[in-house]
Amino acid sequence: MKKTVFLGALTVAGLVGGAAAAATLDDVKARGKLNCGVNTGLVGFAAPDANGVWEGFDVAVCRAVAAAVLGDPTAVEFVPTTAKTRFTALASGEVDLLVRNTTWTFSRDTDLKFDFVGVNYYDGQGFMAPKALGVSSAKELDGATVCIQTGTTTELNLADFFRRNNISYEPVPIETNAEGQQQYLAGACDTYTTDASGLASTRAAFENPGDHVILPEIISKEPLGPLVRHGDNEWGDIVRWTLNALISAEELGVTSANVAELASGPTDSPEVNRLLGTEGNLGEMIGLGKDWAVRMIAAVGNYGEVFEKNIGEKTPIGLARGLNAQWTDGGLLYSPPFR
Amino acid sequence: MSHDNIAFHRKHMLPEAPPPVTETGAIKWLRENLFSSIPNGILTVVSAYVVLTIAMAAAPWFFNGVWDSPSLSACREMLDGRTGACFAVLTERWNQLLFGFQYPSRLYWRPTLAFVLLFVAIAPVLFIKYTPRGLLVLTGLYPFIAYWLIWGGSIVVPVVALLGVLFGAFVYRRTMTASAGVAVIAGIVAAMVFWWAAGAVTAGLSGVMALEPVASRDMGGFMINLMLGVICVSLSLPFGILLALGRQSSMPIVKWICVAFIEFIRGVPLITLLFVANVVLAYFLPPGTTFDLILRVIIMITMFASAYIAEVIRGGLAALPRGQYEAADSLGLDYAQSMQLVILPQALRISIPGIVNVAVGLFKDTTLVSVISMFDIVGMIRGPILASTEWNGVYWELFGFAALLFFITCYGISQYSQWLERQLQTDHR
Questions:
Q1: Chain A within 8 Å of B393 (Cβ-Cβ)?
Q2: What mean pLDDT do residues A97-113 have?
Q3: Mean pLDDT value across residues A68-88
Q4: Do residues A276 and A22 touch, judged by C-beta distance below 8 A?
Q5: Which residues from A are below 8 Å from B102, CB to CB?
């Protein structure tokens, strides 16, 4: 009942919002700042540093869009959102763009009236358990207490997984990852479940990471991506192709180090030329200048650089590329051509 | 009869003997308080054991603490396997814990000054018997000065606000003779009209004595908790009094409105009101309006606190004997006078413990705003600090620090209220 009313309110708001704010691009340009919804704090994905500057994998997407649209990667107003407030923040127009490790699902895309513009991280839900528990598979977790973040897709996946395998569990609801980490370490639950990236970063912060294992089962598909409101396709296109440009740049070997050189004149590769605006007029088609992609790559780097800097194997989080490698390297990243 | 027949006859006073060792000093105290019976003795030994165990476990953690380190992993290396706290997170993120991560660091002196001035402003109210009446002017000016210091911007805004309040008060005084209710409404309307008119006139003066403005969303840390606590408690007192009086009113509409408001607010959890402030209001306001989030939260928390304080004060009003009301009437005082001079001073005194209880609870409840993604001290800890790669995994030190700050504040408030109760003690003991 409560949920229906809530979704109804969202729908009404979505209609009103969609009609009222049709030209997000103009709004952003007039404001001179991009309002970007991010996580209140997720290691490696979005967090302010000691000087209050936002950093992270999701944050880089916001900065890329700001660089492409406004020419300045720092012209972003980061609006921190929790799992509960993120969708209303987007639907009500408080943010232009939500990049908050949000899973692309059917109902969010359709019923909540949002458009997911792509996937910036392919994740999946896993389990972590203490070695001392002696569990080697999630299917052995019958009767276990499970720490689970409320209001997320992981909660539903968990119920599905245990029902499918006909085993029982007892959920211990938690609000944030930090709380989950502490509850798990304090022994409030036998196992902690969240996205595998989150588990890896959580485990990396433990005093004795070796005492805990991440179980082999990945029980869900969690494609995390940026999303925008329904009803403004031009704005959706800009965000979608910003993300695609980040991915294509890595595929084509364009980096923040060599982008200025490559953009100074036509190169041998026509697709690089089209991406960087030395050939054709792709930038103008989406209402940005010729050099939109150059500004963006110079500011934040290509997808691979962003990954390595924020969550890659050299960082404390130490995630491997895995599914998030380019399609040419056996991953799932596959940007449509710039043509 | 001769002296020889008497076997012994003392010729001088004995010196005072010391009392038995079990009836004096520490031993007496121990015997009476800790070991007065066998069950009490057992309890004492067990409690002492528990206290000692906790202290022994916590002591190395505390005294081995590392106060200077760039990250948790570096801190653990320094400790090299020993038990010890990483207090370095507090020193490294000190400013973030107090001011949030977006308040410009070169402007930290402004909220700090506002905090110091808070004591100057609040002292005349707290120690009203011991300070000259004239100092109350400082208290009245403080909200406007503090607003100017914390938010910055032109001084015209707080000055106009102050003048509006003064104008409203003037109108209230003038219409007082007609009827108290009319006077309150007339005062509020007058202030509104003044602000509206002044807003049009002073629109061009936005650069006069301007401090660098700081947006509400840039504020955070313990500063927000203090701001919300101080503002909401001080606003909810007058509203609470009005609601309590309104609930006792003989005018049915006023009474029903007050009853409905109080019962509705008390029936809804604070967190729900905060969600309404953060999420639902955005839908009802026209798109593009930016209604300051802190302001929305202040309104909601004030409403919440007013309802509770109204009930506390109603208790105080109900505790007064009927004779007091009748005495006030028989002196020929009208409603406003009888309330101001006879009823409220007594009722408020009875209500002090309850009001302080609400205030302390409310101050702690301000941490709930972290759930609607505001970065108060708990929000700062749970969000940015624990999500940084350097400090991911430090809990006890951070939350212990937050608890300490809250304890100091709340303990101070409760000590003050006990002192105040003793000061106002006039009843029959």
A1: yes
A2: 91
A3: 89
A4: no
A5: 48, 52
Is the CB of B283 less than 8 angstroms away from the CB of A316?
A: no
Residue type, A138: A
Interface with chain A: mutation pick from B373, B375, B388, B399, highest number of A CBs within 10 Å: B373
Gap between the Cα atoms of A197 and A202, Å rounded:
9
B176 burial type by CB count under 10 A (0-12 exposed, 13-18 middle, 19+ buried): middle
Mind listing the pLDDT tens digit for each residue in B345-374?
Answer: 889 888 888 998 899 999 999 999 888 878
User: What local confidence, expressed as pLDDT, does residue B138 receive?
Assistant: 86
Which chain A residues are closer than 8 Å to B392 by Cβ? Answer: 43, 181, 201-202, 204-205, 316
- pLDDT score, position A299: 93
Residues B376, B220: contact at Cβ < 8 Å?
A: yes
Burial string for B376-404 (b: 16+ CB within 10 Å, else e) reads bbbbbbbbbbbbbbbbbbbbebbeebbee
Query: Among partner residues A48, A201, A316, which is closest to B384 by beta-carbon distance?
Result: A48
Residue B387 · residue B80 · CB < 8 Å: no
> What is the tens place of the pLDDT at every residue in A299-320?
999 999 999 999 888 887 888 8
> What integer pLDDT is reported at residue A15 of this predicted model?
44
Domain B219-429, CATH: 1.10.3720.10
Decide if B81 touches A, using CB distance below 8 A: no
Parse chain B into domains and list their residue ranges.
Answer: 16-60, 219-429
pLDDT score, position A12? 45
3-state secondary structure of B18: coil
pLDDT for the residue B263? 94
Per DSSP, chain A holds a count of helices (H) and strands (E) of 14, 14
Q: Do B384 and A84 touch (CB under 8 A)?
A: no
Q: Quote the minimal CA–CA distance from B197 to chain A in Å.
A: 29
| Predicted interface score ipTM higher than 0.85 | no
Model pLDDT for residues B170-212, shown as the tens digit of each residue: 888 888 777 767 787 888 888 888 888 887 777 666 667 778 8
Query: Smallest Cβ distance to A176: which of B382, B388, B392?
Result: B382
Size of interface A-B (CB pairs under 8 A): 105
CB contact under 8 A, B393 and A206: yes
| Chain A residues in contact with B386 (beta carbon < 8 A) | 41, 178
Mutate to test the interface with A, among B283, B372, B376, B394 (most CBs of A within 10 A): B283
Structure confidence at residue B232 (pLDDT): 92
Q: What's the first-to-final CA gap in chain A, in angstroms?
A: 48
Cα four-point dihedral sign B396, B398, B403, B404: positive
d(CA A203, CA A260): 39
Interfacial B residues in 163-182 facing A (CB < 8 Å): none
- Reduced to 3 states (helix: H, G, I; strand: E, B; else coil), residue A42 is strand
HSE-CB for A216 with a 13 A CA cutoff: 5
pLDDT of B82 reads 83
In angstroms, rounded to a whole number, what is the distance separating the alpha carbons of residues B56 and A338? 67
Please tell me the distance from the alpha carbon of residue B104 to that of residue B218, in angstroms, as a whole number.
Answer: 8
- Tell if the CB–CB gap between B388 and A49 is shorter than 8 Å: yes
Mean pLDDT of B121-146: 85
The C-alpha atoms of residue B341 and residue B364 are separated, in whole angstroms, by 34
- Provide the pLDDT for residue B260: 95
Token pair 């653990």: residue:
B76
Q: How confident is the model at residue B296 (pLDDT cuts 50, 70, 90)?
A: confident
- Give yes or no for a contact between B53 and B62, defined as CB atoms under 8 angstroms apart: no
Please report the sign of the dihedral spanned by the C-alpha atoms of residue B310, residue B315, residue B316, residue B317: positive
pLDDT > 70 in chain B, percent:
94
Determine contact: B108 vs chain A, CB below 8 A: no
10 Å Cβ neighbour count for A333? 26
Assess whether pLDDT exceeds 50 at residue B418.
yes
pLDDT (0 to 100) of residue B428: 52
Yes or no, beta carbons of A181 and B280 under 8 Å apart? no
